[in-house]
Every structure is written in structure tokens, then in C-alpha cells.
Amino acid sequence: MAGLASAVFPVVKMTIRSQIFHHFIAAAGTALALCVCTTVAEPGNAVPARLTSEAFPGGEGSVKFTPFASFELPATNLPESQRPLFHAGKALANQPWIKAPTATDARDGLGPLYNARTCLGCHINGGRGPVPHKGDEAIFTAILRLSVPGEKDTVRGSKPEPNYGDQLQGQAVALSHQLRGKIPAKNPATNPEAPPEARIYLDWLEKTVVYNDGESVTLRSPRPRLEELGYGPIDTNVLFSLRAAPAIHGVGLLESIDQAAINALADPEDRDNDGISGRVSQVWDFERGVTVAGRFGWKANRANLRITTAGAFQGDLGITNPIFPGQPCTALQRRCQRTPNGNDADGFELPEHLLTLTVGFVRNIGVPVSRKQTAQSDLGRTYFFNAGCAACHQPSYVTAPRSGDLAHLGGQTIWPYTDLMLHDMGPGLADSRPDYAASGSEWRTPPLWSIGLSAKVNGVATLLHDGRARSVEEAILWHGGEGTAARQAFASMGKYNREALIAFVESL
């Protein structure tokens, strides 16, 4: 653990990663299952004493969640001089983009193909995006990634589907689409407008899990169904991955964690034989032109917030920018390529200063303070550690020093409960779609902070990468692979103890 000055927990003797966990370092991530871990702590082992700082997961920037919970409030310690820029960036993230060309050249250029008109159209109030529960509702605040088997693409992370690329867009700026809500005629001679790529629906499969005490839980998993393909047949070997929009609060703090601290937790060969082999993802940095560590996205496939934000503008809204200057059209989508764009004099629809403004907004969203602890949630904290959940959902970090406009993000004790690394979650959660270093069954550990506020923020309490879990309990029960032993530990508890662990997680 040399060099990990970010530790804030005292030394605790546990069987979980005993060679590494002298100090329970915490890391950060973006959201998936709960206890991605295997080895269960021995009964009676010490649980780290609660620290005062745990009540403020976002450090000095933690924000209140009363009277209204929100994941788009500025961090409390954001300097007053930067607040006007924060709110300008927030307005831009809420701004609906429109079809080009128009006289309003500051916000035209939507599409030609897109999934949403605004950034916060998917990340509603900064929170998670819902996935439809009914099979006749097309998805809107989630995306469907595509690829085909074959040699990995070093730059894009996977091999795109030839006709449809690496992501399906379910909407288009075609007037006939807007008026009728249907894909227009595919014949370019009768309709030169670019149609949406497809309608995406979800069919849900269910299974029941029964505890030893007789209690049962129904789990569900989605199966994408495509209708009205707009650009011909799709490859028969295509690989799908449904991705729900994650919450975006606290990501500036996650970005501020020293990569060396994350690297020190990695154990790709599982040399300590604890059943956990966390790996640091390796992805392409589109600005520097080199391979670097990834930490954002469900499979940690983005290097930093700037690339993450720019990629969402291009892939989800069809807005070109300095990092991703091309339209979201494949080489075979000629009508899409011929659609007028909203590029300004600099050659982009989103110029550099507006990209910077949006990134600044996202980077400075505060994390709500934790909920008041009860006797039950305090007991659940003990079960959380004893079950081994902290082996991957690392509790805390001290962020690296930062300077200038980012100084308020540095030196903060934060409690995200994640390690930002890839873990094999087993076949139950696998999408079979590789993405850069991540295999088809590997996912990045998501942060757990503010998880209990999700429903209050925007009514969406679903979890995991595809929104299949409707509760913390369901998310835990989906754990496989490296999370099997933790799931088994949870399942073997009595009902009150299970509810106590859940209460603790929802208080974070």
C-alpha cells in the first residue's frame, strides 16, 4: 500500500484482500451491481469505526437533500466566482437542440440521428434514466450498444456493426418522422430524408429466487427487440448491450482520485487468492492519441469527463464537437451523411467554449450528505463489511491535490463506495460484448453514494447497467462471478439482517 496516502480507514484485520486492505481505500465508479466481491469476512472480525466524515460523502462540497433531492446542485465549496459558469453550463445541458439549418445557430445541428434532444433528457435531474417496463414502449433514456465479433478496435473499443455502427439511434430529424412518429419510406427516390435506425423495445424475462427462510424475490432481465430497421438487415452475429443513463453527481470528485491509488488496488491475476481480480481498464484517449486508464462508463471505457461528455454529445444527440467532429452516420447511411449540419465557422456544432462550459457543470455537481443513521442501518454497516462488499465497493478516498479552478475538488475525503475497476460479474449479468479491455462479463464497480435518493430525485430507483434491478436487494441477488460469495452471504442472512444491510446502502 506504499504511496496510498488517500486511506482514511484505520487498520482492520479481515480475510478480504488481507494483503491489500490495511486501510480500506475507497475508489470511484459509475454504477452497476452492489457487492462485487467474493471472500466473506470471518465472523467477529472488527469493522472499522464510523468516522465523522462519512456523513459528508462529497467532502466539503456535500450538499443538502432537503427540501428537494437533486443531483444537479453545485458543490457547496464551489467558489462564488465559478457559480455563474456552473449555472450557464446547467442551462446548456437542459437546452433542447434543433434541426439545422436555422437562424438560431447557437443550438442547431441536432442529429441527423439521435436518442435525445438534451443532455439531461436522459440524466433526468442529474439522476438515472428509466428503462420501459412494458414491451410496447420504445426506450428513450437508455442506449443500445452494438458490435460484431472480430478483432478489437483499438480506438473504438469494439468492432462496429457495418450498417448501424456501435450505437443505435431511435430518432431522426426527418420531418416525416417528426410528424408521424414512424420511420419514413426507405426508398430514397420517394423520401430523401434519413430515417431513424430502429425502434428498440424490451421484452422482460423473470425468475424467482427463494431464501432459506422462505421469502422470495422475482428478478427480471431485458431482451432487446428491434423493429422497423431503417438501413437494411443487421448482422446476424451482432452483440447487444443495453446501457441505462447513470447518475452524474460527484463525477468531478471521481475524476480527482489519483490513478496510482486505483492501480494499487488492482490484482488482475488474483495473486492473493481471495477470488477478486479487479483490473484497471485501458482505453483510447481521443485527444492525446494514446492508450490510458479508463474510469468512466459502465465498462470504464472513457478516460475522463471531457471525452465522456463530448462522446455523449455526438453519439446521443448527434452534435459534433472538437473531440468527435463527425456525424453519427455510418459509411453506408448516405441519406444521413447528406443531411444539412449545424457546423459553425469553427467546423463544429458544439464549439470548444460550450463543451468546456458543459464539462464544468458536470464536474462540479455536489454529492448529497448521507441520510441519518438508524440502529438498523448501523447494524447493516457491520453486515456490509462482514459480507465482503467493501472488497470492491471501496468506501473512501482522499482526492489528489488540484489547482486553479479545480482546487476545491482536491484534498477532499470522499465516500463513493467503488474502486473504478473492472470485475467479472458472471454469466447472469454478461452482455457477451467486449469493450476495450473489458470482457463480455466484466463491469466497472459503480459508486453507491446517494443510491437511496434515486427515487426522490426523479422517480427512478432501478439499478445495474441495464436497469433490470428495481431495488438494492435485486441488484445484490444478480451478483455472480467475483460477487458470488457476497451474494451468498447476503442470501444466508435472516430477513431483518438483509433489510439492515439494504438500509445501510440506502443511507450512503
What does this structure look like?
With 508 residues, the chain is α+β, with helices and mostly antiparallel strands. The protein has a domain at 86-246 and 304-361. It has helices spanning 83-94, 175-180, 251-255, 259-265, 305-317, 334-338, 352-363, 375-386, 454-458, 472-477, 484-491, 495-507; strands spanning 113-114, 142-147, 167-168, 171-172, 199-210, 216-227, 239-244, 281-285, 290-294, 397-398, 413-414, 422-424, 442-444. β8 and β9 (290-294) form a beta hairpin. α1 (83-94) crosses α7 and α8 (375-386) crosses α12. The longest helix has 13 residues, at 305-317. The protein is globular, with a radius of gyration of 22 Å.
What is the tally of helical segments? Answer: 12
Q: What's the story with the biggest beta sheet?
A: 3 strands, antiparallel
How many beta strands in the DSSP annotation?
13
Which residue ranges are poorly predicted, with pLDDT under 50 across at least 5 consecutive positions?
Answer: 1-45
Secondary-structure class: alpha+beta
**Ends distance:** 26 Å
Q: H/E series, N to C?
A: HEEEEHEEEHHEEHHHHEEEEHHHH
Oligomer: single chain
